[in-house]
Amino acid sequence: MIPKFFHRLCDDAAVFPPGDAPLDVAVRQHLEHRASAFADLVGPLVVPMDRVNELDLGARMEVALTAPAGPGTVEAGLRAADRTAGVTVVSIEVAVPEGTNIDALRTITQDLDIYVEIPRDDRRDDIFDAVDEFGYRAKFRTGGVTADQYPDERELAASIYEAARREVHFKATAGLHHAARNTDPDSGFEQHGFLNVILAAEAAHSGARVGELEKILAIRDADVLAGLVAGIEGQRAFASFGTCSIREPLDDLVRLGLVPPL
Length: 262
Hints:
Elements: E1 10-12, H1 23-34, E2 42-48, E3 61-67, H2 74-82, E4 87-94, E5 113-117, H3 124-134, E6 137-141, H4 153-166, E7 170-173, E8 182-183, E9 190-191, H5 194-205, H6 210-217, H7 222-230, E10 241-243, H8 247-255
Parallel strand pairs: 1-2, 1-10, 2-3, 3-4, 4-5, 5-6, 6-7, 7-10
Antiparallel strand pairs: 8-9
């Protein structure tokens, strides 16, 4: 049984790097996850807008649609999803490519959870303002296939602080492969831990400043993090994170005693 605190923590991003699972394989595995003893841990299958018409489900499935080309592609993607049997869209993740008119974000339907990826350049504050004004949610990139796609502790702490200050919910995408901050033994990349992000989000909502959040994000002792997370009461401040492997975070949660053996 998955404790309620961790329900829907992991969005299934199996089709994205570094997993790159074929869509039919990702669908089959996702349906298996949703029928498993750890089903409550798993959020929607994350699918690119331009591939939703490739889904052949044979069952009902919740999906999160990504719009990497920007808000102008959202309505067409939703229409394609409406024509795809079994698909229930529960959220949309919108990128804001350079040159995008911010006002275009206004055109997105608000019947769903809308996550807007906050850019890591000088447009950051303006996009944050738009997310706040339109009642959307934020999406932070926490990794990728190259080292420069990983924000350092200071940058991520500043983003988490800003989200809490504005009372904006956020999710993370990529790079959160393990519970604690770590150095990947294969790539050498410095990777954030998902328990670090959970704790930083909770601390930010309790009034912690950027410097304090930076220290939380730097903790590398998974057992220390697990003890602190176990003491959190109430709802989780951090919405979810996309992961190409559901088993990696699940195995860490079980090993740390935060989830019972399944």
